[in-house]
Amino acid sequence: MIGFITRRLVQSVFVMLTVGLIAFGMFRYVGDPINNMVGQDTTLEQRAQLRKSLGLDDPFLVQYGRFMVNAAQGDFGVSYRQRRPVSELIESRLPATLELSLVSALIALFLGIPMGIYTALRRNGFLSRAFMTLSLIGISLPTFLIGILMILFFGVILRWLPSFGRGDVVDLGWWTTGFLTKSGWQSLIMPAFTLALFQMTLIMRLVRAEMLEVMQTDFIKFARARGLPDRMIHFRHALKNTLVPVITITGLQLGAIIAFSIITETVFQWPGMGLLFIQSIGSVDIPVMAAYLLLIAFFFVIINLVVDLLYFAVDPRLRISKN
Q1: Are 20 and 71 spatial neighbours (Cβ–Cβ below 8 Å)?
Q2: Which of 83, 160, 222, 250 matches a 20 to 30 Å C-alpha distance to 11?
Q3: Which helix (H) or strand (E) holds 177?
């Protein structure tokens, strides 16, 4: 186990270095940040001095190495647009994104898995057909369209929920949360469900497909021949074997919720990291864009490591093969 974790950590370091190289290299060619930082009356000498002070005249490898060393220490430089440390900007936006992603992930898991089990065990039922229809809608419609339709119906026509923003938040010093206010929960409902819908339908269909396949295996037939009750067969034997491939996809989807919250945050003007990233693109704010991609890559690395560890807890065959 220790050797496996060590190998995964070494691989994670190479992944972070590669992502940093790609992100930093790509954003060097999206535009000149100096043009967005100065006015028309700025002289060429002032432009050159500003470029030198930001280190933009240094060779690419020097800039990349400096960025990665500082990033490893939590220092992502200074935002070109807001003239503030990028770490402060991320720290102020991170709680909003993580809370939105957490609630969306819980909705996707706690609705998607039971719906997948139910549609596998009751394939011809009316509720199963309704769930499958909902899954088609969730997979087919783009996220931004779902968000706009929810704003139109619940925010404009019915006026039940706020259509933008995060609502009132409580400052806990190192964290700001909307979980402790009524308006915070009301503002969270629509963006969380919009972000969770695609992941929920994907998890539901995956669980359904895996459950149907497991139910046709020999050991399930033997369990029925032994006279075991359906509840034990379904939830102790079939579901446990279903979860092995489901854990992989679910783990990746949880990372995708954080990574692709950009669209949802933009539609609902949710003050998270995704909205900060979109705003940074318009001003060619390279430090913010590179820091965002590094942070998303870090989340994926951590989630993949947790998924690998869950394999050992769910499937004893993996523990035997590693010993």
Answers
A1: yes
A2: 250
A3: strand 176-177
